[in-house]
Amino acid sequence: MTEQQTGVNPQQPPRSPSAAGRPAASRATGIGRLLIAVYGVLALAATGRSFVQILSKFDEAPLAYSLSALAAVVYIVATVALINRGALWYRVAWATIGFEMLGVLVVGTLSLVDPALFQHATVWSVFGSGYLFIPLVLPVLGMWWLYTHRPAVQAVAGRKTP
Amino acid sequence: MIEWFSWLQLAVMVPAGVLCVVLGLFGRKPTDLTMGATLLVELLLIVQLVVALVAPLVGNEATGSLLEFYTYLISAILLPVAAGFWALIERSRWSTVILGVACLSVAVMVYRMVQIWTVQGV
Questions:
Q1: Could you state, in order of their start, the residue ranges of all structural domains in chain A?
Q2: Phi, psi at residue A157, to the nearest 5°?
Q3: Is the Cβ pair B93, A30 closer than 8 Å?
Q4: What sign does the CA torsion over A44, B79, A137, B9 have?
Q5: Residue B121: its pLDDT value, please?
Q6: How far, in whole angstroms, is CA B9 from its chain's centroid?
Q7: pLDDT given for residue B41 in this prediction
Q8: What is the 3-state secondary structure (H, E, C) of B24-66?
Q9: Rounded to an integer, what distance in angstroms lies between the CA atom of residue A159 and that of residue A155?
Q10: What local confidence, expressed as pLDDT, does residue B73 receive?
Q11: pLDDT at A155
């Protein structure tokens, strides 16, 4: 799986100097792969949890559990959008990751300011503290990665078809 | 769940995960060592599945939700397999890191499974 050699942010520091001989471009792509993997795990976690919540106790908190399910779907779509390359998927990735950022900020804030609203845990409650704050950190990394891998930037490098 | 076996799992999964993440960040491609560590984690989960199926028959009942327990267990079983296939398809250092991330995620899930099985009644 060879990637284009440019389209990389020059300010981006090399992760590990010991990996000599590898161009910076493939390293950035590699971190992207890791990002996709972590997104996949989070999608699985969110899906599993909302599956259990909806099956066993949906009546207790329809709002919180519907939100959990919605978040799970958005994580799945974001994972798929990150894997696929085209311009359309790029926009889908921005939309879903932006939605996550918004979700974790709004729900996280509300769950602290007005705990009565979210008595039942969602992925985003207290900024994702139940998930090691990964839901808070991941959208930031995702947006950074998208920003440094704009289709326009890749086009300069003679990229593959969208 | 058998308590000592749960701790044994964690005692294997956490070092295995850390090992893979560290070796990956140092630029190693997936090797027999890292793939083997992931395979070991997977085998432990399969044994855990058998233990979970048999334990209630001998009077060791889960105190929490079985649905939640098995959702964690099945998800956990899928993770090392997915990461392992990824490592076979794409032989890069990041595949090694991903093996480690999978092992560590599984460790967190096993810990949650212990909680579901033993300390409920909130």
A1: 24-156
A2: -85, 10
A3: yes
A4: positive
A5: 47
A6: 8
A7: 95
A8: HHCCCCCCHHHHHHHHHHHHHHHHHHHHHHHHHHHCCCCCCCH
A9: 5
A10: 92
A11: 52
**pLDDT value of residue B31:** 92
Q: What's the token pair of residue B90?
A: 């794409």
Are the Cβ atoms of B71 and A38 closer than 8 angstroms?
no
The pLDDT score that the predictor gives to residue B6 is 92
Best residue of B94, B95, B97, B104 to probe chain A, by most A CBs closer than 10 Å: B94
CB contact under 8 A, A51 and B82: no
Where chain A has pLDDT below 70, the residues are 1-30, 119, 152-162
Distance from C-alpha of A100 to C-alpha of A154, rounded to nearest angstrom:
25
Interface predicted TM-score (ipTM) of this complex, two decimals: 0.71
Instruction: Burial-class residue A13 by CB neighbours within 10 Å (0-12, 13-18, 19+).
Output: exposed
**Lookup result for tokens 């070092």:** B15
Is the separation of the CB atoms in B87 and B95 below 8 Å?
A: yes
> Shortest CB distance from A30 goes to which of B68, B71, B94?
B94
Residue pointed to by tokens 């085209």? A86
Task: Tell me the domain boundaries of chain B.
Answer: 3-118
Alpha-carbon gap: A45 to the closest alpha carbon of chain B (Å): 8
CATH fold label, B3-118: Four Helix Bundle (Hemerythrin (Met), subunit A) (1.20.120)
What average pLDDT values come out for chain B (122 residues) when binned by 10 residues?
90 95 93 94 95 89 86 92 90 91 93 85 44
Chain centre distance of CA A92 = 12
C-alpha to C-alpha distance for A125 and B24, rounded to whole angstroms: 32
List C-alpha distances in Å: A78 to A6, A51, A64, B50, B93. Answer: 24, 19, 21, 34, 24
What is the pTM assigned to this prediction? 0.74
